[in-house]
């Protein structure tokens, strides 16, 4: 775990120790081991199915059913086998599985403790509705709070997210799906304690599995869209050797600006796609113009200035991109109305396009090209600040400056070709010579 900060490793170690502490009362607890074994087996099977379907997330109904049926230590044990055998896409896999297992143990333990303290297990045995809903709801809240608190703390230590934003939106986004899983878990627990027994309880999982399968299909479709995006960007990089890697870095800078502005994670991801795809329309521009050594004629410049419209035509059918499509079309507009393709003014320019415009110009100035060296980051930021209000949105420039002060920036050499005939330095309005 060399890539993980020391503080984050200590945080994970404390989480694991806390989970072990929750399991310590287990030997002295009166437990139905058959229920623990069956629930743990079902949960592990669900995790393996999720890995096979490549669905992100955890199958919470089984864990919450355990919290509603069992004492805290025994309920927490249900999560261990499935979590330790779950999929881990990044290395090191074992510590990541251990961290996730510890989080689930703590979350289930808290849910079971709250549920039991409110008399929930008696209400489950008696099938006492609607009184069984209140303890179950409180248990779901405790489960969500523990998981989001632990996830937010880890974000602070590994992603250097400011404390004021680390937990923003995490609890609210997770509560609705976990509440649905909690209702399914409560139904399982009630049926488990009814004369119908565990077999009837497990039948509750069938509609959940069908919904997971449908979500897996959607996930595959989204992955196919993303693969298409990557292929388009690679095609642009191959066609325009001057800006190889530029799109990925503009996506990164756009994401930094969006986070600094306090946008939620879903919108940050859309802005990253906007940055990655902003130049995809260059596929419609003749290669000879993109690679021309000398200055462009007015006619040639007008042809290149069509690339935002070409790009918009290419991506407008990709529904999940949302406002990223507007950024592709309008990222060369200027606040004073002198940009293209439509000469929009001020707030007529979509916010996503104003973000990408700043990220695009910044990376163009700080990247080494075959015809000029990169400008230092402070010089590039001074130029952006000088043009704020006329060309760039001052809010976006300020957000980028703050993000760079905190996280830094390391531009890479993007052109791997032999040096060509030098060209005069490009102004900020056209930071790349063949990229008006």
Automatic annotation (TrEMBL):
HD-GYP domain ranges (all copies): 221-416
SUPFAM superfamilies for the chain: HD-domain/PDEase-like
Superkingdom of source: Bacteria
Domain HD: 243-365
Region of interest (Disordered), residue spans: 415-436
Matching Pfam families: HD_5
InterPro entries per the UniProt record, alphabetical: Cyclic_di-GMP/3'3'-cGAMP_PDE (IPR052020), HD/PDEase_dom (IPR003607), HD_domain (IPR006674), HD_GYP_dom (IPR037522), HDIG_dom (IPR006675)
Sorted UniProt keywords: Membrane, Transmembrane, Transmembrane helix
Keyword Membrane listed: yes
Transmembrane regions: 60-80, 101-119, 131-150, 170-192, 198-216
Protein name: HD-GYP domain-containing protein
Species the sequence originates in: Streptomyces spinosisporus
């Amino acid at each position: 775990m060399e890539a993980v900060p020391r503080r984050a490793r200590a945080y994970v170690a404390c989480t694991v120790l806390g989970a072990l502490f929750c399991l310590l009362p287990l030997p002295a607890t009166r437990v139905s081991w058959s229920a623990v074994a069956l629930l743990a087996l079902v949960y592990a099977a669900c995790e393996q199915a999720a890995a096979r379907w490549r669905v992100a997330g955890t199958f919470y109904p089984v864990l919450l059913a355990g919290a509603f049926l069992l004492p805290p230590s025994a309920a927490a044990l249900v999560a261990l086998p499935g979590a330790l055998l779950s999929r881990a896409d990044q290395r090191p896999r074992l510590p990541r599985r251990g961290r996730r297992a510890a989080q689930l143990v703590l979350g289930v333990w808290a849910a079971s403790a709250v549920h039991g303290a409110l008399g929930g297990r008696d209400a489950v045995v008696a099938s006492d509705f609607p009184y069984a809903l209140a303890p179950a709801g409180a248990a779901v809240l405790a489960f969500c709070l523990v998981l989001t608190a632990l996830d937010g703390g880890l974000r602070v230590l590994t992603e250097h997210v400011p404390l004021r934003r680390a937990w923003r939106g995490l609890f609210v986004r997770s509560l609705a799906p976990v509440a649905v899983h909690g209702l399914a878990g409560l139904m399982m627990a009630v049926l488990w304690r009814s004369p119908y027994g565990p077999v009837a309880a497990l039948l509750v999982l069938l509609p959940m599995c069908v919904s997971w399968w449908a979500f897996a299909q959607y996930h595959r479709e989204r992955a196919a869209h993303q693969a298409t995006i990557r292929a388009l960007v690679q095609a642009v990089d191959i066609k325009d050797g001057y800006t190889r890697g530029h799109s990925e870095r503009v996506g990164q800078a756009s994401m930094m600006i969006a986070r600094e502005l306090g946008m939620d994670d879903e919108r940050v991801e859309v802005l990253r796609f906007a940055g990655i795809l902003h130049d995809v329309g260059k596929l419609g521009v003749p290669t000879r113009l993109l690679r021309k050594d000398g200055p462009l004629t007015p006619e040639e410049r007008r042809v290149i200035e069509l690339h935002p419209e070409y790009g918009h035509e290419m991506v407008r059918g990709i529904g999940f991109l949302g406002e990223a499509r507007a950024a592709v079309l309008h990222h060369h507009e200027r606040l004073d109305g002198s940009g293209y393709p439509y000469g929009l003014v001020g707030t007529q320019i979509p916010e996503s396009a104003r973000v990408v415009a700043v990220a695009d110009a910044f990376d163009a100035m700080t990247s080494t090209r075959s015809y000029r060296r990169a400008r230092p980051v402070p010089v590039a930021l001074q130029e952006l600040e000088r043009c704020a209000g006329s060309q760039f949105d001052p809010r976006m420039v300020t957000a980028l400056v703050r993000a760079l002060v905190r996280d830094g920036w390391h531009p890479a050499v993007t052109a791997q070709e032999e040096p060509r005939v030098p060209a005069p330095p490009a102004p900020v309005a056209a930071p790349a010579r063949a990229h008006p």
